[in-house]
Amino acid sequence: MADVRALAFGAGAVAVAAVPVAVALTDRHLAGASAALALSTIAGALAVSALVLQPLLARARRIARHQILGVVAFALVLVHVGALFAEAPDDAWFALSPDGPTRARMALIATIALFAVVALGGLRSRLPLSAGTWRVLHAYLAVVVITLGIGHAVLTDGALDGAGTPILVVLGALGLVAVPAAHAARTRRARHRVLSQ
Amino acid sequence: MRRPWLLGLLLALATAGIVAVLVDSETSGTGAENVGESGPERAATPAPTAGERERRCEITESNPGGTNNYIPDAPERDSLGSGFVISGLVRSADGCRPLQDVRVQVWLATETGGEQDNRASVRTDAEGRYRLETAPTVPQFGEPNIHVGYDGGDYGEVFIRRVVDLDDERAVVDLTLARSG
């Protein structure tokens, strides 16, 4: 039974990882696009999938993979932004400036929150935080990253328009629902351990 | 968790801060109004009447991002492709008088290249109007946008960035210039 569940989880994870990038790659937006713009788009689409998978991995207690994917997600976002700077530095600096559009502010806040949530994960044992406080902070930052990261993708005209928009909304909702679900699963397991002792 | 109320307060403040930062922003960036149009062309701005020549028209201000990817002295070109038209009326702030033979520079990203590749200079006609046909703009940085600039001379320079929708056919960008000095 556990094998079937693991198989289903793996298949679902592959689907979540493949769908946004497949939609982006087949969109006409990338026809004739420069290598930098194509790289940025692919990295952004993969980052969406990584953000959605993170709470699902936490819920399934796959913590080692959760930690690795957190670093991968942050690296993907850096590639996404770095490629935009390579494409057109003027536009990239403008996007990050106080005069930038709302979607860019969402991206900037989401990136800072993503760095914070990855750092929080890496420094868990060294921070003077109780387990409860750490979990609430980690979940809060995760919700900020998913909400604003997906919001940024939805507001951005590009390779994830059209069919991409409902896919982004569904994936974002899945990720957001999975955050409290991961907490509930952890609480259930903890209660079960106490009762069985 | 010893002081849950403190953590709750901090997170509520953080959320309020995030919301404030987002609400404070403009959807397309500061001053980047949507100037795209489709369907039948609207009537051009009429020439000023005798009475109106006494008044002063509001100067077009540069907006943030206006000089993004600007390269001085764009080559004079008849078109940058087809499918989209950028046009406008250039006039003086004093008396709202149309300005003839003024060089206007236009640059935008299209399927044939980025903003630094697609640039052209056009000149205003006797009625102060300029017009450039181009391939439609593409959303290279999240939203299709166009740049129109006047790089100075008799009048003060102005560089603006405006946005359009993906299915628009035209963009109208009028410039009202103030005399230099």
Question: What descriptive keywords fit this protein?
Answer:
heterodimer; A: 197 residues; mainly alpha; Four Helix Bundle (Hemerythrin (Met), subunit A); 7 helices; globular; B: 181 residues; alpha/beta; Protocatechuate 3,4-Dioxygenase, subunit A; six-stranded mixed beta sheet; four-stranded antiparallel beta sheet; 1 helix; 10 strands; 12% helix; 27% strand
What does this structure look like?
The complex is a heterodimer of chains A (197) and B (181). Chain A is 82% helix and 0% strand. Chain A has 7 helices and no strands. Chain A has 197 residues and is mainly alpha-helical. The two termini of chain A are 25 Å apart. Chain B is of the alpha/beta class and 181 residues long. Chain B has a single domain (34-177), classed as Sandwich (Protocatechuate 3,4-Dioxygenase, subunit A). Chain B is built from 1 helix and 10 strands, in the order H-E-E-E-E-E-E-E-E-E-E. Chain B is globular. Chain B starts with a helix and ends with a strand. The mean pLDDT of chain B is 92. At the A-B interface, helix 4, helix 5 and helix 6 of A face helix 1 of B.
Could you give the topology of this structure?
The complex is a heterodimer of chains A (197) and B (181).
Chain A (H helix, E strand, L loop, with lengths): L1 H25 L8 H25 L3 H25 L1 H8 L5 H21 L8 H25 L8 H33 L1
Chain B lengths: L3 H21 L11 E2 L41 E2 L3 E9 L10 E6 L10 E5 L5 E6 L10 E6 L7 E6 L6 E3 L2 E3 L4
Parallel strand pairs in B: 2-6, 3-9, 3-10
Antiparallel strand pairs in B: 1-9, 3-6, 4-5, 4-7, 7-8
